[in-house]
Amino acid sequence: MWLCCLRFPLLLRFRAGPANAGKFITSGVWSLCRHPNYLGEIMLWSGLFISASSVMKGVDFASVLSPIFVAYLLTNVSGIPILERQAMKRWGSDPNYLKYRASTACLIPGLW
Asked: What residues contact residue 66 under an 8 Å CB cut-off, 6+ apart?
């Protein structure tokens, strides 16, 4: 939840700056990963499952499919792949973006 609270004011402040028009953000949580919004979404659904799992019995544990499905969709279908393609179309010729892309985790800092 803290991730969501941190990123919105940072993004709004970044977008409000006239000097930032057409640029990509690399500060704040974006210095750790390129898609903090999707990381937050996956963490939210995983956290809900984990917190509810203490009272689950039997077939209730099948609800683990929900955070797994959300993670799959965001990392393979609708979220990250689309934004990564759009970013490459928009900033793919910018050496600063390519450096940022090479040095910043896609989703999980230090892993991927």
From this structure: 45, 49
